[in-house]
Design brief:
The complex is a heterodimer of chains A (382) and B (279).
Chain A: H1 2-19, E1 27-33, H2 36-53, E2 58-65, H3 67-83, E3 93-97, H4 98-106, E4 130-131, E5 134-135, E6 141-153, H5 164-173, E7 178-180, H6 187-200, H7 204-209, H8 221-231, E8 234-236, H9 240-248, E9 254-258, H10 259-267, E10 275-278, E11 284-292, H11 300-310, H12 313-324, E12 327-328, H13 341-347, H14 353-359, E13 360-361, H15 366-380
Parallel strand pairs in A: 1-2, 1-3, 7-8, 11-13
Antiparallel strand pairs in A: 3-11, 4-5, 6-9, 6-10, 6-11, 6-12
Helix pairs in contact in A: 3-4, 6-8, 6-15, 8-15
Chain B: H1 2-36, H2 47-87, H3 91-100, H4 109-119, H5 125-132, H6 147-171, H7 175-183, H8 188-217, H9 220-224, H10 233-244, H11 247-274
Classes of the chains: A alpha/beta (382), B mainly alpha (279).
């Protein structure tokens, strides 16, 4: 007991020397939204790696749960500390969803750190600048990018529908063979609905880039009415995982899924190899998750070193692409040297980088996003 | 004397009262206030309620029907289980039943919901068993992952609780009343309906009320087993908060749920008062 304490003191002193950081800053609190695998990723992979370079640093990892709810909890904790005017916040690094990244920047709780870390210039995609209409330039580093697509069972569907239009007629010809999870049971369903509005609502570009104009919402009525009609021939699934379960059991033949989840299940043997992916015309949305650092983080310097490691090409290749089948957060070209070709090919097996560039869309800006889900609640599912 | 009879009891219950006040009454007050505070303008009014009815009117009806139906089924099943344990058939079967029926008590809702997802699916375990047994044709198999799945899960989980209360009450009845009826030639069913149930009806009601209030508060089951719409109000509340950060409408839905729970809680409390505080 005494020995370990002594060792951690020595470690802290060492760390203090190396980092020229205050000795008390040898604890790093990392809070992550998302499924359990996100917390595991930091605890089992990133954390030990960081501790190897920074001996004596204690890393506490907390997972706040999947979906926007997980990000919301992090926001509420920081907001409480902000309102109480606490001198330092007890979150050093947070992993949050795109929408929350913007909300946190607007609330003035984040540190603009991207320019201060070496990996900051490895990101050029506009998701690091624009988070659903909010300018987050400098405040965030993408941890990874995730994408939704249609998964289909190639044994049952020989010529899969390649666009929303083709899907519409396919569903008429094959009732109940397409399944999705509505909008309240997970984001893959939300994504499908957003893609629908992009395809049929008109003016998709404005929805993604703004500015917000309430009048635009009125032009979606026909799209919603069509979706309501479309839903009559659809099987509803219980959640993101529920859609894949039903694909696996052959209860549905096509459904929208997250690409990373798809590859992970495939690697675990929970989906038959006959299930494949495609990105329909005109496209479906995807989103990054962000590393953010609160502006009153107690261990800000350590936090920046941590994010620097997490967004380095080696970690992005090994951890993000190879382990989790996510698309990298930093630009893909920087990963070439750190990744063998086979892994790279596997990730882009069904959906090519060109497809992704052309048909991988961002989610709409927040007011349109809310208007789409509310419109669905009111006009489609009500 | 006055200290011991008046002040001391107050001092002794103070910690419990403080906990109730801080952890329950204060959040409840906040949530009630927020239900009447309009999200966009910040003014007080009924806007959140108007929106609740406009968006979630069907879900309210759905919630009332599902909880009501589940509660009735739970009441009927708990009487059946309790009656079987008291009136018995084969002693081994009674022992097996006594051992088996409590199991769902130890399984959390979220675990039950996860199990039901694979059990009730179209090509799930239940249908596979039925097909293997020749009860249904493979083509006529259908998914129960909808309102039926929600109902099934609630009844499966909550019946154990109600049956525990009811069978306890039945076991503590004076056996002479049952024997007298049997001696006069009453059948088992008649004994159950006419002799036992009237004597334990308060306990049955309590089991049903507590089950109803529990069911109203469960998020995991409708979220994991239910599909599409309508759905239950807990799902809508979670959705309002997580997707829109809209606590106003979520709390308005919560307020309506309190009203629903409060009407049945009223009977529960009134009975508690009339029997001198025993639950």
């Amino acid at each position: 007991m005494r020995l370990t304490r002594l060792m951690s003191l020595v470690g802290a002193a060492l760390a203090a020397n190396v980092l020229t950081a205050p000795a008390g800053a040898a604890t790093l609190n990392v809070v992550t939204a998302g499924d359990q695998n996100m917390a595991d990723y930091v605890r089992d992979y990133l954390g030990p790696k960081f501790q190897k370079d920074n001996p004596g640093v204690t890393i506490n990892v907390f997972g706040t749960g999947p979906g926007d709810a997980g990000s919301q909890k992090i926001f509420e904790k920081l907001e409480a500390q902000q309102k109480a005017s606490t001198a330092t916040y007890d979150i050093d690094v947070a992993v949050v969803h795109q929408k929350m990244g913007g909300q946190m920047v607007e609330a003035g709780m984040l540190e603009p750190y991207r320019g201060k870390i070496a990996t900051g210039k490895l990101v050029s995609r506009d998701t690091a600048v624009n988070a659903l209409g909010v300018n987050v330039d400098g405040y965030v580093m993408p941890m990874f990018h995730s994408q939704t697509a249609l998964a289909y069972n190639s044994d049952l569907v020989k010529s899969p529908p390649k666009s929303y239009n083709e899907l519409k007629s396919w569903v008429q010809a094959h009732p109940k063979q397409f399944g999705y999870n509505g909008i309240k049971n997970g984001m893959s369903g939300v994504s499908f609905v957003v893609g629908w509005i992009y395809a049929y609502g008109g003016n998709a570009d404005k929805l993604m880039k703004g500015p917000y104009d309430k009048a635009v919402e009125a032009s979606w009525d026909k799209a919603f009415a069509d979706l309501k009609e479309f839903n009559k021939n659809v099987t509803f699934t219980p959640g993101n995982a529920g859609t894949m379960d039903m694909l696996n059991r052959g209860e549905i033949a096509i459904g929208p899924v997250w690409v990373d989840m798809f590859y992970t299940w495939m690697a675990d043997g929970k989906l038959p190899p006959s299930v494949k992916l495609l990105l329909p015309e005109p496209g479906m949305p995807g989103q990054p998750m962000f590393y953010v650092i609160p502006n009153k983080a107690a261990s800000k310097d350590l936090a920046m070193k941590f994010v620097e490691l997490a967004t380095s090409p080696a970690v992005q290749a090994e951890g993000i692409v190879k382990r989790f089948n996510w698309y990298p957060g930093i630009d893909a070209e920087h990963l070439k040297g750190s990744l063998d070709q086979a892994v790279w090919n596997k990730l882009f097996d069904d959906v090519s980088p060109q497809d992704l560039a052309k048909k991988g869309q961002p989610f709409p800006i927040v007011p349109y996003f809310s208007a789409i889900t509310e419109g669905y609640e009111k006009k489609v599912s009500n | 004397m006055t200290f011991r009879t008046r002040v001391l009891p107050l001092v002794l219950t103070l910690p419990a009262l403080v906990v109730v006040a801080v952890l329950f009454l204060v959040p409840l007050g906040y949530s009630l206030l927020s239900a009447f505070e309009e999200t966009e303008t910040g003014e007080f009014g009924f806007g959140n309620f108007a929106k609740s009815f406009e968006f979630y009117g069907w879900d309210m009806l759905f919630t009332v029907i599902i909880t009501g139906l589940a509660t009735l089924l739970i009441g009927a099943l708990s009487i059946a289980i309790g009656g079987y344990l008291v009136l018995g058939g084969h002693p081994r079967l009674v022992a097996a039943m006594r051992w088996l029926y409590r199991w769902p008590l130890f399984i959390p809702f979220i675990v039950a919901a996860q199990c039901m997802r694979t059990f009730l699916a179209k090509n799930g375990i239940m249908n596979n068993l039925l097909v293997t047994a020749g009860v249904i044709e493979p083509l006529s198999a259908q998914s129960f992952l909808d309102w039926r799945g929600i109902l099934f899960t609630f009844v499966w989980k909550q019946t154990a609780f109600a049956a525990l209360l009811v069978s306890g009450a039945m076991a503590s009845l004076d056996p002479a009343t049952i024997e007298a009826a049997r001696n006069l030639g009453a059948g088992k069913l008649r004994v159950l309906v006419e002799i036992i149930v009237p004597q334990v009806r308060v306990t049955v009601a309590v089991g049903m009320i507590l089950s109803l209030v529990t069911i109203l508060s469960v998020l995991s089951v409708p979220l994991m087993v239910g599909t599409g719409s309508p759905t239950m109000l807990t799902v809508d509340m979670a959705f309002r908060i997580n997707s829109y950060g809209d606590y106003g409408v979520a709390n308005a839905l919560g307020f309506l749920t309190y009203l629903l729970a409060a009407t049945v809680a009223w009977f529960y409390l009134r009975r508690g008062v009339s029997t001198g505080g025993t639950p």
